[in-house]
Design brief:
The protein is α/β, with parallel strands linked by helices. Helix content is 38%, strand content 15%. Helix 15 (332-341) crosses helix 16. The chain binds pyridoxal-5'-phosphate (PLP).
């Protein structure tokens, strides 16, 4: 039985296995797992060499699966990186980072040099913006923002010095979608490297590297970890960028702990069932919200009629539990009273865990070119919240939201 699945000779004519099957088998090389199902947690800084011949030979090989020194990982980290590569079509390899933000920094520092210009979607995750306006600027790299829904605005901004574009789709606070294939095509035509923060959809919902994106980054802290107990990030790329991405990560001393890698690998096994459940619950809850008189707009890409839904239906194969909505009228205070009245939603950052979360939506400080409130929403309807729907029963979550809406109206 030992590693039977992985050992079996692969017939090149076999049809590719479904994503559920791949999620179960991914990264489980028999030489890493031994006789058990999961790779053990290899806590290791020093790797010992058998003799001086192997010590001399060691540094020549810089690849996962070769023992060298703890900073290059050991089987627990290798298994996770390989598993992520196996579920990311078009990837030659995956680099792990201690957080999603570190993965974004790792990708940007791989492809940008002093004097370059970085373009970024204006609805990008706030720490990505801060990185552009702080870290990148300090290294002589200029960041310019564009409306992600406007491909021609992007093309107009491209100049000789533009060397990379950072996309996020949908924007993880206000949920606008962009036409990733069109933007990636426009970038590639000009020799601009496209990087997509694909944390929202994951490889299950959007196969970025097959749609023209050069480097796909993700916060594994969210869906893949899935249990709000570990932080990690990843960047995957085809052969053109993987080697330099990996080398730069090693230059920067990036390494993840084997304990965290084991937790994230455990989360990966159930990623598909969790995403399916969260997506169906989010759809049910967002459809219910869209019928409520207290709600001005629901921003849930999976919901027909929601902004960006057409792009989502065209490009995505799945969704998740993260969406936002705006109240009809009210104030920041009434919005806060709604949040305080919720009993099943924790107030906190992050998302994609098994438990539901809520945060206020206040994008104004984090925008340069996009108007807020969005088109079709009046100024008085600008207050909203973002929900991360977990694995609770959707009927209970709806009852909780309804109770909070009633309480907010009574205040
Ligand atoms: C949370 C998040 C990140 C950063 O991930 P961390 O693991 O928290 O550093 C990056 N991008 C998006 C879209 C996120 O939501």
């Amino acid at each position: 039985m030992l590693g039977r699945m992985a050992d079996k000779k692969k017939n090149p004519d076999d049809p590719p296995k479904g994503i559920g099957t791949r999620l179960v088998a991914a990264g489980r090389r028999p030489e890493w797992t031994g006789p058990v199902v999961n790779p053990p947690v290899w806590r290791a800084s020093t790797h010992l060499y058998e003799d001086m011949a192997s010590h001399r030979d060691g540094p020549r090989h810089n690849e996962d699966g070769r023992f060298f020194y703890g900073r290059r990982g050991a089987p627990t980290q290798w298994a996770l990186a390989e598993a992520l590569t196996q579920i990311e079509p078009g990837a030659a390899g995956t680099v792990l980072y201690p957080s999603g933000v570190a993965a974004i920094a790792g990708a940007l520092l791989t492809v940008l040099r002093p004097g370059d210009v970085l373009l970024m979607t204006d609805n990008a995750y706030d720490p990505s913006r801060t990185m552009g306006l702080g870290l990148m600027r300090d290294f002589g790299i200029e960041t310019r923002f564009f409306d992600p829904r406007d491909v021609s605005a992007f093309e107009a901004l491209c100049c000789e010095r533009t060397k990379a574009v950072l996309l996020e789709c949908p924007g993880s606070l206000t949920m606008e979608l962009c036409d990733v294939p069109a933007l990636a095509r426009a970038a590639r035509k000009r020799g601009i490297v496209s990087i997509l923060d694909n944390t929202w959809a994951s490889a299950l919902g959007f196969t970025a590297l097959t749609r023209g994106v050069d480097i796909v980054v993700s916060s594994l802290t969210k869906h893949v970890g899935g249990h709000s107990d570990a932080m990690m990030g990843a960047a995957s790329a085809g052969s053109k960028f993987y080697a330099t991405l990996r080398k730069r990560a090693q230059n920067l001393g990036q390494v993840v702990s084997p304990d965290d890698a084991a937790l994230v690998l455990r989360g990966l096994r159930t990623l598909q069932v969790r995403l399916e459940r969260e997506t169906s619950s989010a759809l049910e809850i967002s459809a219910w919200l869209s019928q409520r008189p207290e709600i001005a707009q629901v921003m849930c890409p999976m919901l027909p009629g929601s902004p960006g839904h057409q792009i989502w239906a065209r490009d995505f194969t799945g969704g998740c539990g993260l969406f936002s909505f705006l109240f009809k009228g009210g104030t920041a205070l009434s919005r806060d009273s709604f949040i305080d009245a919720l009993e099943l939603f924790g107030i906190g950052y992050s998302w994609g865990g098994f438990e539901s979360l809520v945060v206020p939506v206040d994008p104004v400080p984090y925008r340069s070119v996009m108007a807020w409130p969005p088109k079709g929403v009046t100024r008085k309807d600008r207050f909203g919240v973002r929900l991360s729907i977990g694995l609770e029963d959707p009927a209970d979550l709806i009852a909780d939201i309804e109770r909070a809406l009633v309480k907010m109206a009574a205040n």
